[in-house]
C-alpha cells in the first residue's frame, strides 16, 4: 500500500493559491489531516496532500468570485458618483460596530480572511483604541472602512508575519494596553475599505495619526503588516498593500516575502508620515 503524501504549509498555501494565514483557516474549517514533525524545523506540521486537492477547486472558485465582486462594486460606484452621498465620519470602534466590521471584511476579503466578532470582542475589551472605523455619518451601521492596529510584543508580531500564529489565534493576552511613557509596536491586523469609498481612506488613516499626535505620552515606534498583491505578479493589490505603498513600508524579507515594517522615527518620503512626524514633534515639545 502506497504511503500518503504530506506537504508543508508553504506548499499547501501555494497549492490552494492563498496566503498562509488563509491556508490555516482551511486546515481547521475543512478538517485537513496533518501530522506532527519532530525534525526541529520551522514547521510543526505537514498536511495531507489528497485532502488539500479535494478543496482546491472550491478555494480557487471563491477567490475568483471575490475578485469579480470587487470589480462589480467599482462599476456600481462609478454609476452612483453623480448622486450626492453622505459624508464619512471616524471614531474608535464600539462593541456594537464589530458585527458590521466583520460583514465588511467578509464582503471584501472573504470568510477565510476575516476574524469573527466572537474573537474581536476580546481584542476590543483589552484595548479600545486599537480598532478605528470609518462610517456613514447618517447611519453608524453602514461601515465604510476599518483600520485595526494591535499593540503587541515584537516577538508575537514576528510569529504572525512568519505564519507561526494566525490572526484567528490572536487572544486578548497577545494584545497590550497603552500606558503613558511606554513605546509600542503595532500589528496591522485589518486594513479594509469599501471600493466605492476609497477616496475616504485618508480620512480614516489621518484620524488614527491625529489621535497619536494628541497623545504624545504614548509612543508608537513601528507598524508591521502582512500584505501582498491579490495576484502573484502584483497586477492587482488589496487595501493592505495600498497602505504599504502609501506610507512607504519597508520589506522584511528576512521574516517573509510579504512582511512589511514602518519605523515612524525614520525619514519617510510619504507626505502623510512627514506631516505626522512634524506635528508629533511640536506637540511633544509643548508637553
Automatic annotation (TrEMBL):
Family annotation (InterPro entries): Ig-like_dom
Boundaries of every Ig-like domain copy: 86-202
Domain of life: Bacteria
PROSITE patterns, per database record: IG_LIKE
Protein name per UniProt: Ig-like domain-containing protein
Origin species: Dictyobacter arantiisoli
Amino acid at each position: 500500500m502506497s504511503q500518503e503524501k504530506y506537504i508543508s504549509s508553504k506548499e499547501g498555501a501555494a497549492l490552494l493559491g492563498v496566503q498562509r494565514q488563509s491556508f490555516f483557516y482551511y486546515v481547521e474549517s475543512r478538517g485537513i489531516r496533518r501530522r506532527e514533525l519532530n525534525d526541529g524545523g520551522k514547521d510543526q506540521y505537514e498536511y495531507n496532500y489528497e485532502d488539500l486537492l479535494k478543496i482546491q477547486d472550491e478555494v480557487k472558485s471563491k477567490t475568483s468570485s471575490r475578485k469579480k465582486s470587487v470589480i462589480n462594486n467599482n462599476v456600481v460606484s462609478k454609476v452612483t458618483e453623480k448622486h450626492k452621498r453622505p459624508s464619512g465620519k471616524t471614531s474608535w470602534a464600539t462593541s456594537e460596530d464589530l458585527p458590521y466590521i466583520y460583514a465588511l471584511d467578509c464582503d471584501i476579503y472573504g470568510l477565510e480572511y476575516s476574524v469573527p466578532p466572537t474573537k474581536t470582542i476580546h481584542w476590543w475589551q483589552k484595548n479600545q483604541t486599537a480598532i478605528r472605523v470609518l462610517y456613514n455619518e447618517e447611519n453608524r451601521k453602514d461601515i465604510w472602512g476599518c483600520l485595526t492596529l494591535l499593540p503587541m510584543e515584537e516577538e508575537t508580531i514576528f510569529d504572525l508575519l512568519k505564519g507561526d500564529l494566525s490572526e484567528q489565534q490572536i487572544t486578548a493576552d497577545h494584545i497590550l494596553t497603552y500606558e503613558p511613557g511606554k513605546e509600542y509596536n503595532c500589528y496591522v491586523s485589518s486594513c479594509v475599505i469599501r471600493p466605492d469609498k476609497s477616496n475616504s481612506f485618508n480620512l480614516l488613516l489621518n484620524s488614527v495619526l491625529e489621535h497619536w499626535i494628541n497623545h504624545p505620552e504614548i509612543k508608537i515606534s513601528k507598524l508591521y503588516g502582512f500584505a501582498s498583491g491579490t495576484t502573484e505578479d502584483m497586477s492587482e493589490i488589496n487595501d493592505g498593500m495600498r497602505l504599504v505603498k502609501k506610507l512607504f513600508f519597508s520589506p522584511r524579507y528576512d521574516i517573509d516575502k510579504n512582511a512589511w515594517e514602518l519605523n515612524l522615527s525614520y525619514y519617510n518620503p510619504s507626505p502623510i508620515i512627514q506631516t505626522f512626524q512634524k506635528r508629533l514633534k511640536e506637540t511633544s515639545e509643548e508637553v
